[in-house]
Amino acid sequence: MSAGVRNVVLVHGGFVDGSGWQGVYNLLRQDGFNVAVVQNPTLSLEDDVAVTRRVIDAQDGPVVLVGHSYGGVVITEAGSHDKVASLVYIAAFAPDKGESVNTLIADPPPGAPVPPILPPADGFLYLDREKFPASFAGDLPAEQAAFMADSQVPWGVDALAGTVSEPAWRHKPSWYLIAADDKMIPPPAQRAMSERAGSVTAESPGSHSVYLSQPAAVAALIKQAAE
């Protein structure tokens, strides 16, 4: 492995847990990286940032901090940590100061697919189980997508409302992988956020689950950020 950052911290998004990173984890480990996977409760942004910062604290040197989907909000806030050298967004939200998931999804582009989010129940959100595969995991095997739909992690409405205080991308280098076939965060929105953040961008075919379906593309971009 070439000289560079050796530690990678992976942050999952809403409705899923950290186990979806296994393919990316395996590829990075094969290349000699130390990889930690955050397991965020996704109850509130404040809590998820605290959980993520504890994982960063435990690393023995500089860190590449990676977020998928809502995980992008988490890394935008947690990325101000002194150990974070660079940020990598994977089909992720990259909010500016004062923005949240709620503000970023409030005004979808005309004709954009609408994620099948059910009305909140007891303060939590779920995706419609029948529509989950097509919206979230359209390029995964049907059995895998069905399992993801049935093993959803409840996403707290407070997490979607959590606003960023100081976006780390304003003072740290960032990379962004755009998922060209994403039906959760429209690709034009991904391009706009990555451009605003000044990210080095790459684009891959893939659904919102691009981190599962295209682990080599994801790992390659993380390695760029590490160098």
UniProtKB/TrEMBL annotation:
Q: Name one Pfam family in it.
A: Abhydrolase_6
Q: Where is the AB hydrolase-1 domain?
A: 8-220
GO MF: hydrolase activity
**InterPro entries membership:** AB_hydrolase_1, AB_hydrolase_fold, Sec-Metab_Biosynth_Hydrolase
Keyword set, alphabetical order? Hydrolase
| PANTHER family the UniProt entry points to | AB HYDROLASE-1 DOMAIN-CONTAINING PROTEIN-RELATED, ESTERASE_LIPASE_THIOESTERASE DOMAIN-CONTAINING PROTEIN
Identification of the protein by name? Alpha/beta hydrolase
